[in-house]
Structure of Multidrug export protein MepA:
Amino acid sequence: MTEIKSAALELGTERIRKLLVQYAVPAIIAMTASSLYNMVDSIFIGHGVGPLAISGLALTFPLMNLAAAFGSLVGVGAATLISMRLGQRDYETAQRVLGNVLVLNLIIGIAFGLVALLFLDPILYFFGASEATIGYAREYMTVILLGNVVTHMYLGLNSVLRASGHPRKSMYATINTVVINTILDPLFIFGFGWGIRGAAIATVLAQVISLVWQLRILSNKQELLHFRRGIYRLRKKIVRDMLAIGMSPFLMNLAACFIVILINKGLKEYGGDLMIGAYGIVNRLAFFFVMIVLGVNQGMQPIAGYNFGAKQYDRVMHVLKLTMIGATCVTTAGFLLGEFMPRLAVGMFTSDEELIRLAVEGMRIVFFCFPIIGFQMVATNFFMSIGMAGKAIFLSLSRQLLFLMPGLIFLPHIFDVCTEWNGSWGVWCSMPLSDFLASLVAFFMLTYQLRKFRAIGAENAAKEG
């Protein structure tokens, strides 16, 4: 137990660069594996079922975002709360957070899955499905929703493992899921002939196996945080704090749900079903780089949360700076791929020439402002990591609601009426434009907050002197 506590305590004493590498590298590997996890499904479905199946899969993105919204509401909030309580040496509350995570994920996971299953067809039609694509989307989501509670539990407990000083175990859980899914996908799709349903079964089964492993780890009484009697009763303050912090990623994913609906509807209106498939491919490729940045952010989260709780503001600012540099490097690599080698990337998903052409055009536009979005993502996660939920929520929603949503509503019509291009170009161009404007907002908010930290640091130094 002493050794496990020291793993958490080193967050306040070890060199920041070493800590960030120690925590971020496993998270990056895990998030990269997680993005590959989604790409594997798309690649096997694209080659094993067909181009319209990719469009059907893309139609499920809003519902997947909505499920992720509820998962992050609990998981991200719990991870931040645990980091802060460990920084304050409040181990009893951190233990109770673990129990509350388990119960909340069980309740929300079952409720969401059942409600979505009851109204699945109307939901998919609202998302932009047609008679040609709804069969694929329905087959896939029925299985995913039946296993929704498993997904919630798996993601929530992974956040707990990472926040409690076990980034490698969190990484292993994700990698195990990806490897199992990659093995089962071709077996179920090609070998058993289950098609798109086989991809969904492989996804859920892989998560079940990893969840069993997580439950075994957290049942070990030698762990700093472990399952025991008395921690499962929902505590009003813990639930309130957890949901307040998790509200930022929840609203971000909720907004993403509505955004993808608008994108799908706009692309279907001006480009047809295949254009939705093109967005599905571009979204998977963008998601790959976004997930790596999220991995860097997850490495920052326990370090920033712990040191903010311990009032070591110089260490908080140092980890922020290093995270910004790392994230910008990742998104710049995405920009280079999107602008100079888009056909190579898109070709992994399909051999259909028309689908490749549409996806390449979209990718070049969407990836245009990629070098700066790493900054915006880190700034948002930073405020969340130190418990400033209101600022994190505002930054989360600035891109989605203030800039992207109006762009998706007005730009397609403007392009269609006022230019030689059709409205689908307006849909694509809305994305980099919103990235640019949201990054400006994040820059001004973060600059203001860092000035306050510097002032506090100078005041503390003067008192000590």
